[in-house]
Amino acid sequence: MSNQITIRPTEFRNIRTGDVTFGYRMYDNYGQTYDNCIFNTKDDIPDDDLELVKMVKDNPNDVAGAMFDYIQENQGDIWVDDEWYEWEKIKHLWDEQ
Q1: Does residue 1 fall inside a structural domain?
Q2: pLDDT tens for residues 39-94?
Q3: Who has the most CB within 10 Å: 34, 41, 57, 85?
Q4: Number of domains forming the structure of the chain
Q5: Three-class DSSP labels, the chain
């Protein structure tokens, strides 16, 4: 069974205070997670999609870690925003550990 995993860099805005933080949302067919404090400013968000994937992969919470485990175990793919990266394009991220 396939499982589409997606990472989206995200600006989080508190609707009451107006405070803004920067991070990512990550989700698949079964769950979702986010980190709203991984980046200090919008400029800290990498322009390179695979650099973003590596940053999240290297510092995952439990849910993101399980999603990355799934990708590795199934030689799966990942979406970053609307760009799709197949296993052949991302597998080196596991080799760099």
Answers
A1: no
A2: 999 999 999 999 999 999 999 999 999 999 999 999 999 999 999 999 999 999 99
A3: 57
A4: 1
A5: CCCCCEEEEEEEECCCCCCEEEEEEEECCCCEEEEEEEECCHHHCCCCHHHHHHHHHHCCCHHHHHHHHHHHHHCCCEEECCEEECHHHHCHHHHCC
